[in-house]
């Protein structure tokens, strides 16, 4: 069958694509681009115009003139694994991901010890845990002991938070985690034990991106020098996990061909993270909150980030990187004062949200010094009593906000 031609009045959004490359020099394309998945985008150039209020006998206003041109916008997305690690998370945190660590036991040299309510991960091999740092979530695999959990796994496996990692010796980690009360001491045999980890935290390493919007085969809009002013992540009952990133760009320019050095890499294809099997939990100082979470929202922002303009040029001449802040909201069922007491006493703590996709690949998002403010919400008859919290992240010696990603195997 011969395909019909000439049926389009306009290009379709299904044929568009957003991709990016990491810039070495601000505003200059470099390397092979990576495509991402999006729900919608408002990337565009914007012209600020003004009309002079001239006194005139004709009663006609003067023609407006352009006083400034800016570029940027918001990309909206449904959260899926590995798709937004650079363009969103590394961009807004202004840092690079650490090395992806796949530590495996050798001749049974990794031991999880549970004693007096404390957990320690140790190895008989010096330097076994080089690369792991304080205030980082890790995932243990290959253990076989501990209570059987609701998902069929055992307590020794799962997510653990490195509360203290001494520099010497470098093969002992002090851990806390949601499975602590159900875990037991174990030394898996051979190479069974596995530690999976990769981390990034907010920093001051300026990273910018060359963002490209493909409209058709030979129609492109490009946004060089793109910098994340703000990023959000939102999850809740009845909706998949969503996010946004607000970009500030040097300029908007059109092109007839991609600026990628090779074919644009296809976007990852994993399922979007859902609020049922995809929500591992929320944790306060490594322990389960002890109450049901209805929804949460995280905002990472470089407050004050903006382009720098000069007279005589339509493009920005630089960027102001702003001040990093982390904030959020959370709504939970209320059944006692355990968590709410932190509002009354103004006690801060480490607040984490862990999500995973259908393959088990997981992310942990952590406020290292979270201050909670909140109120008890009593709705209409027959409704659950809830607590609504606002979250304010403060700085620590380990940073303000940390994201950890962990492989499933």
Our estimate of the beta-strand percent is: over 45%
Number of continuous helical runs: 2
N-to-C CA distance: 46 Å
For the largest beta-sheet, the strand count, sense and barrel status come to:
18 strands, antiparallel
Please trace the helix and strand order, writing H or E for each element: EEEEEHEEEEEEEEEEEEEEEEEEHEEEE
Query: Which value, in Å, is the CA radius of gyration?
Result: 25 Å
Q: Which structural class should the secondary elements be placed in?
A: mainly beta
Walk me through what this model shows:
The protein is mostly beta strands and 409 residues long. The chain has two domains: 14-43 and 67-98 and 202-406, no CATH class; 101-197, Elongation Factor Tu (Ef-tu), domain 3. The protein has two helices and 27 strands. It has helices spanning 85-93, 341-344, and strands at 17-22, 34-36, 40-41, 44-50, 65-78, 101-104, 110-115, 118-123, 136-141, 158-165, 172-176, 194-197, 199-201, 209-216, 219-236, 239-249, 253-255, 279-284, 287-288, 293-303, 306-308, 318-320, 323-333, 349-356, 362-377, 386-393, 401-406. The strands form three sheets. The protein has an 18-stranded antiparallel beta sheet that branches. Strand 15 and strand 16 (239-249) form a beta hairpin. The protein is globular and about 90 Å long. The two termini are 46 Å apart. The relative contact order is 0.17.
